[in-house]
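Internal ticket - ligand job 458, zinc ion:
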Amino acid sequence: MDKQINRILIKDAAYVITMDEKRRIIRDGSILIENDLISAVGKAIDVTQSDVDTVIEAKDTVITPGFINGHCHISYAHATRGIFPDDLGDDYLVNVFRLQDSMTAEEELWTSLLAITELLSYGTTTIMDPGSTKNVDVCLDAYESSGIRMITGVQLADAENPYRMKVYSHEQALRVTESFLSQYNGSLEGRLYAWVMPFSPEYVSGELLRELKVLSDQFNVGCTLHINKAGRLASDDINESPVIALERFGFVGSNVTLAHCLGLSDEEIDILASTNTAVITCPTNVVKNGGGYGQNFPLAELIESKVRVGIGTDAGNNSNLLETNRAMYLAAVLTKDATGDPAQIPAEKALELATIDGAKALGLESHIGSLEVGKKADIVMYDTLRPEWQTLFNPVNTLVYNADGRSVKTVLVDGRVLIEDYIPKFVDTERLIRKVQGIGSTMMKRNNVSFPSKWPFV
Ligand SMILES: [Zn+2]
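stdout (C-alpha cells):
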C-alpha cells in the first residue's frame, strides 16, 4: 500500500444521497476517500478497505454532497449583523459600504472567518464571495485555515456611485483583475477560484463589461455580476432591460453567472438559455426586502428553459441568514405559493439547486455537487436522531422540508474533516465570536453609526 495516500472510510450511513446521474440514494451506504477525492461510494457491504487511516461511523446519518452557495458576501457583515431597522430603505447600501470601507484588514479577516464558520457548520462547503472582500491577501488566512472551497475576485466599477466603490479606469480595472487572477486562481491546493467581478451594469459601463468578459475568456475563469430589474445602465440613456444589454455587451456565456435577476422577461430568459448564461437566486434576500420572490423570480420558467440555476444567500446584513439549506427551502415553497401549484419545484429539484445544479451554475460540476468516484470529497453528514428528522422514510423530502443546518454533524471539504460532531476543528468558536462582537462595537463607534432599538434596553 502506498502510504502517501490518506484514506478515510465513512461507514454505515442510513442513506447516502449521491446526486449522481441516476440520482441514486444508497441505503446502508459507505464512502471511501483517498486524499481529496472520493474513491468509492456504494453499499457498506461493498465498500471495504483494510488500510484506512480514519473511520467515521455514519450510523443514523444522512449524507449529501456539500451545499453550494453561489452568492454570499462574507466580508464585513458579521461585525454589525442585525443593526439595520426594517424601515431603512435606500440608506441600507450606503451604510453597508460606509461600514465596510472603514474596516481594517485584520477586522475583515475575523469577520470573514466567522461567516465561514457559520456556513461550514450548517453544511455549505463552497461559496462565492462576489468581490466585496477588500483584503483577500490577509483574509486568505481564513480561507486556508478553515479549509472551505471558495470563489472570489475584485469588485469593479467605472462609474461614480453612492457606495464608495472605487472608480477604476478601464486600464486599471483590467490590470488589477489580471494580477488577481494570476496570483490567486487555483491556489490553496485548488480550493480558491479567482473570478472576474464587476459589480453591476448600473456602475460598470458596457465597454468595460465587454473587455472584462474577454479577459475572463483568456484566463478561462468565470465572471459574475449583480443584476437588478430597476437598474439604470452606466453608459446608456436608453431604458433597456439588463440581460438584453448584457447580450449586446457580449457579457453572456457559459462562464457568466448573474446574481439575483428578479423580473426577467421571457425575452431575457431566452437569451440566458441560448447563451448558456447561469443565474444565482437569493430568496432570503428578496423576501426580507419585500421583493415578491415567487411573483418576480421565474424559477420554474428558467428551469423549464434549461437555464443553469443555483442558490445564494447574499450578505449577512441584508438577508441576514446565510444558510443555503433555508434558502433552498424558500426557493421551493415560495414558488409553490406564488403559482398556487405544490408540484412546482419539488423536493428533488430543490436539493439539486443546492448541490449539482449549483455546481453547474458555477462551472464546477466535474469536481463538486455530487458524491461520485473521482469527485472532490466535499461531504455533509446530517444527524437524524433529532426530532426534525423524524420519522424518516424519504430523506430528500425530510431534508428539504423539515430539517436544516442544525442537524449538520460532520463536514468534509477536499477530504479534510472541518466540522466534527458539530464542532469546527479550525477555530476556537467562542473566542472568535467575542472578537467579532468587539470589532462590531468599534466599527460602529468609529463611523458614528447606530440604530437604536425601538424597544428600550433596561
Ligand atoms: Zn450581492
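Auto-summary: The longest strand covers residues 7-17. The radius of gyration is 22 Å.
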